[in-house]
Design brief:
Blueprint (H helix, E strand, L loop, with lengths): L7 H10 L11 H13 L6 H16 L4 E6 L6 E7 L10 E2 L4 H9 L3 E2 L4 H6 L2 H9 L4 E7 L2 E8 L12 H69 L8 H26 L7 E4 H18 L2 E6 L4 E4 L1 H17 L5 E9 L3 E8 L6 H4 L17 H11 L3 E7 L3 E9 L5
Parallel strand pairs: 8-10
Antiparallel strand pairs: 1-2, 1-6, 2-3, 4-5, 5-6, 7-9, 10-11, 11-13, 12-13
Helix pairs in contact: 2-7, 3-7, 7-8, 9-10, 10-12
Length: 426
């Protein structure tokens, strides 16, 4: 239940079921009321995917626009990309984008009013060649800005209205459409804020769990380490009492190997509980990625895994040893997911403020119920694994001011995304 006294999910279903009475384009009071009610209620839809599907459909239903494209700005100040569309047919292309500092975006941001191309040929001439080409390719006749919190979040690109080769809405209908666009902007903003809030709460909850587990791990490691050292010393002394060829020697060696394995787990606990502070410097990600692939190329070859690196010379301020540890851990996990061969790719995406290292594999993938637990200490799906590798990696990335996330599709592979602040620190 919400503060306004009704369930948002039920409200969303009601909103989606709203229809325009009578003709699609009408000047009747019922028509105006339906558009206003839907516009005001848009902010109750908090699912971005649902908004992307609903907005184009309702624009066509309410205003009779044949072709609709919704352009939204990417996170981190990226371009305005094609988010959803109706009526574009085979011309739908997710790579279509408008620059945030392009002339169309600047005009919409400054004027905060619709741009109807046939009414303002001077503005059309002012636009960049690439912008005019996209609008012409999509057969767009009008652009309505999506402004929220004094920021241009995107715009609605609309084609001709029904039964016409032009944008023929009346003045009153354009006013209704402007209101609709304003509420659409607020709806997308609310949905984005909710998504970010959920992500922050998720990170906070995970950090609290890791902190608690870290305290327990530190105490446990301290209590285990000293008696373990005594046990190992005693076993080594015992081994010296056996003569060469004694059958008991193999048994003692097996015990020593298990003691060493326990010691490795304890060392992992200490690394997780008391992580080393990063020693920041300039790190070239291209060189680091190639180095990591070189370290695993023998194992990759034995497993018939083809590894590729598509990383330009991007410099980040980071600890080279710790970031190498993270990337190597992720790459080794990818190899373990492809025992019978596959493809391993390391690539980067840069926004100017952050750089995302993407490690992709074609392995078995990770089940949905396991993804939320991947960074939890001691959780593992590998036989004999300690479940500390990704927990340690998570802590390292956090101390670099970054994030690490996993996307996976069972049967089709996994992508691990490591995001770090981009910079040229020394």
């Amino acid at each position: 239940m919400t503060a306004i006294g009704f369930d948002v999910g039920l409200a969303s279903e009601y909103i989606l079921s709203m229809k325009v009475p009578g003709k699609r384009i009408s000047r009747s009071p019922e028509y105006r009321q339906a558009v206003h009610e839907f516009s005001r209620s848009l902010t109750l839809i908090v699912d971005e995917e649902q908004l992307r599907e609903t907005i184009p459909a309702k624009l066509r239903e309410f205003f009779g626009v044949e072709r609709v494209a919704v352009f939204l700005r990417e996170a981190d100040g990226g371009p305005f990309v094609l988010s959803s569309a109706r009526g574009l047919g085979e011309e739908l292309d997710s790579s279509l984008a408008f620059l945030p500092n392009g002339r169309l975006a600047r005009w919409l941001k400054v004027n905060e009013e619709p741009l109807v191309l046939s009414d303002q040929p001077g503005v059309v001439d002012f636009l960049g060649d690439a912008e005019r080409e996209i609008l012409a390719r999509l057969d767009i006749h009008a652009c309505f800005p999506l402004v929220a919190l004094n920021q241009l979040k995107g715009f609605l690109a609309l084609g001709s209205t029904a039964g016409s080769n032009a944008f023929t809405l009346s003045g009153e209908q354009r006013e209704l459409l402007t209101v609709f666009a304003g509420q659409t902007a607020l709806a997308f903003e609310n949905a984005a804020l909710l998504r970010e809030q959920r992500a922050r709460l998720k990170r906070l909850y995970r950090a609290e769990r890791l902190a608690t587990a870290g305290e327990l791990a530190a105490g446990a490691a301290h209590e285990i380490r000293n008696p373990l050292a005594s046990i190992r010393s005693a076993i080594q002394h015992l081994r010296g009492s056996f003569s060469e060829g004694d059958k008991q020697t193999d048994l003692v060696d097996d015990i020593l190997a298990e003691v060493d394995r326990i010691n490795d787990i304890v060392e992992g606990l200490l690394s997780f509980a008391r992580p080393a502070e990063p020693q920041f410097g300039r790190v070239n990600l291209a060189e680091l990625a190639r180095h990591v692939v070189t370290l695993v190329e023998v194992q990759a070859g034995e497993q018939n895994v083809v590894a590729s690196v598509d990383v330009p010379d991007i410099v980040v301020r980071a600890d080279p040893n710790l970031i190498t540890q993270v990337l190597l851990n992720v790459v080794m996990n990818a190899l373990q997911a492809m025992p019978d061969g596959g493809a391993l790719d390391i690539a980067t995406i840069s926004t100017g403020r952050t750089v995302e290292i993407r490690v992709s594999d074609t392995g078995a993938g990770i089940a949905m119920e396991d993804r939320e637990k991947l960074f939890d200490p001691f959780f593992t799906t590998k036989k004999g694994g300690t479940g500390l590798g990704l927990s340690v990696c998570y802590g390292i990335v956090q101390r670099h001011g970054g994030e690490i996330e996993v996307e996976s599709d069972v049967g089709h592979g996994t992508v691990v995304m490591i995001r770090l602040p981009e910079g040229h620190g020394s």
